[in-house]
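Many introductory courses stop at the sequence. We go one step further.
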Amino acid sequence: MAYESMGLKTFGFAGGREDVGNPKDVYWGSGKRVACRNQNRYDDDTERESLENPLAAVQMGLIYVNPEGVDGKPDPLRTAQDVRTTFRRMAMNDEETVALTAGGHTVGKCHGNGDASILGESPEGADVAEQGLGWKNPTGKGHSEHTVTSGLEGAWTKNPTQWDNGYFYLLFTYDWESRKSPAGAWQWEPINIKEEDKPVDAFDPNKRNNPIMTDADMAMIKDPAYRKISERFYKDPEYFAEVFKRAWFKLTHRDLGPISRYLGADVPQEDLIWQDPIPAVDYSLSDAEIADLKIKLLNSGLTPAELINTAWDSARTFRGSDFRGGANGARIRLAPQKDWAGNEPDRLRKVLNKLSEIQAGLDKKVSLADLIVLAGTAAVEKAAHEAGVNITVPFSPGRGDATDEMTDADSFAELEPIHDGYRNWLKKDYKVKPEELMLDKTQLLGLTAPEMTVLVGGMRVLGTNYGNTKHGVFTDRAGLLSNDFFVKLTDMNFAWKPVSDNLFHLVDRKTGETKWTATRVDLVFGSNSILRAYAEFYAQDDNKEKFIKDFVKAWVKVMNADRFDLK
């Protein structure tokens, strides 16, 4: 509505967002303090693409990038690297990035007209008496013309309450030099600007001030690729407005998930590729047909572990933060997912080929997405039966198969898993500990701590580790859905001896014999007091059946995480 009030015809709007009460389970970065410094987020501070995955903002407490420049030092070309990395992780290409930067800075102003060092605590950190109303500023009125937030001071355009092409006009018309704001922050100001091109002061209509640009704004004309796009936008304001309104809609709606979750009368009807469209299915399956398919899948010649791993890898991409990923669509068979290291491409190709062969021989058309999930479900059910519990693992058909044309491969690249505690896998060593990475994946999947516990314990005994490693497989009956993982983990007859930072041996306290190996992810279920309570619960002899039932519930929850039609 604000943009419309300033003259931009927007692309549309949808409701459906939820309010989170507590962000404590969200991974904010490896820094020990909230305002962690930039270098805590990079493997190599000179390589800006090494920004820690899955983070996007270069620094906690900032929107996207540092407006003064990398590490507070003006350098537009270096800042361009940060901008590109950050926006790419939000699934934005270069054109969308320039449009959002320019469109966002076409309106409004920065606030840094004072000494930032004398400000009080941040609104969230201040005493309750401050009521979260902003940084307490003892200078002057402490608000209006004395406001200090970003530290930069000034508007970007001549008419900061009007949608126009003034942003590019100023960028391309004048030379710019780096200066300090009244608050001491680095900003860019024009050289020898005409008086009539200056914006009127926000609080004194008889005064005009220099416009300003951030280091990211200067990147829009210093970076060659960004400059080419900026030049086109400058020459074609209508095209700029069209690209911006679509990019703005994407920015403010991309975490809503598929269009089926959108609410309201202003929802655009156009299918957009970043909404990850999936074709609807036109079939149903009876219980008898599902049972028959299970037999076919289990007799395929593929091992239960191969079937479980493929179903899990297909579903684990789901992110509750933006409702992307998941098994629906079977995008695991498309680029880029089919080649992800975490999906074990050789095994994946073998399984998909066999499932496609089975699909081709069916009398009724069934999507590959449904077959992938049903195959894993059938294997879990078989493992439960072999452990002595006769249980039917629920299965809900109705998944469609997406195509390459429906898939934004570039944006899906950012969903590539770099770890999976459930399959005991790390792509490489990271600053963040494996158990913390697992916690982040758990909250993205929407799982609780008990569900995380029962899934890890079950996946271990099912023998589903990445690369078939034996770490954490505390059983002589691999393949059966038993509670052996918890029994051995909590057995006080054994001690754990570190071999390396992420490898441990389970040693018999009397003989010194090494019986099992484990990772940090395995051992956290014994070392953390809350997780150990769950582990001891599932280790009990009289909870073997409950363990299986709870595993099945958690398994189905992951398989159906992206089935919004079931919710």
